[in-house]
Amino acid sequence: MEILKSVCVYCGSSVGSNPVYREDAIKLARILVENNVRLINGGGSIGLMGIMADAVLVSGGACTGVIPMGLQQKEIAHKGMTELIVVPDMHSRKLTMVNLSDAFIAFPGGFGTLDELFETLTWSQLHLHLKPIVVYNPLGYFDPLLQQADMMVREGFLNNSSRSLLMSTDRIENLLPMLRNFKASPLDKWTSPTESKNEF
């Protein structure tokens, strides 16, 4: 993948306890705008999600948010988005974000971020999409998660091909090059190309 038009960033609805997370969210926003890449996110105005969207919009970039109706009604939705898509539920939100995005970055976050990351990884493992996924790992935030993935390989629950789908870096400037340089592996026995197109 050489051309990136849109990147989905999964990140926290909180800002975290270390200012580096906020600073890096703003840095990534600027990198996306400089490279003419649209940000796709969960449509919220709070936490790192809101900070990154604000930074994209202030810098003249484009941001599409996808938010479930229930969260919109709680007034968590970001009202300044270039485009805000309201969907019925959380599953629809994840599916819509995957369909809109060329690639994915997981920033530090909580359960919701991990849920989005792992569902996107599982769909990639099943070849329901063939898009790159990179975990951004400042301050070793995701080290235990990456170690757990390695444990899955050692204990025979994950093969090396699937493990390679979970890419990571602690250097923010590496994120877009890693996404662009990703090459999808051939389809395996579980899913045919026709089934993949029908799902997404």
Q: How many independent structural domains?
A: 1
Strand order of the largest sheet: 4-3-2-1-5-6-7
CATH topology name: Rossmann fold
Report the C-alpha radius of gyration, rounded. Answer: 16 Å
User: Architecture, according to CATH?
Assistant: 3-Layer(aba) Sandwich
- Portion in beta strands: 15-25%
End-to-end C-alpha gap: 18 Å
List low-confidence stretches.
189-200
CATH uppermost class: Alpha Beta
| Mean residue pLDDT | 91
Descriptive overview:
The protein has 200 residues and is α/β, with parallel strands linked by helices. The chain has a single domain, classed as 3-Layer(aba) Sandwich (Rossmann fold). It has helices at 19-34, 47-58, 69-73, 90-100, 111-125, 143-154, 160-163, 175-181, 193-199, and strands at 6-10, 38-41, 63-68, 83-87, 103-106, 133-136, 167-169. A 7-stranded parallel β-sheet has the order 4-3-2-1-5-6-7, with helices on both faces. Helix 1 (19-34) packs parallel to helix 2 (47-58).
Please give a handful of descriptors for the protein shown.
single chain; about 200 residues; alpha/beta; Rossmann fold; seven-stranded parallel sheet; 7 strands; about 15% strand; globular
Please sum up the structure shown.
The protein has 200 residues and is an alpha/beta fold. It is built from 9 helices and 7 strands. The chain has a single domain (6-199), classed as Rossmann fold (3-Layer(aba) Sandwich), CATH 3.40.50.
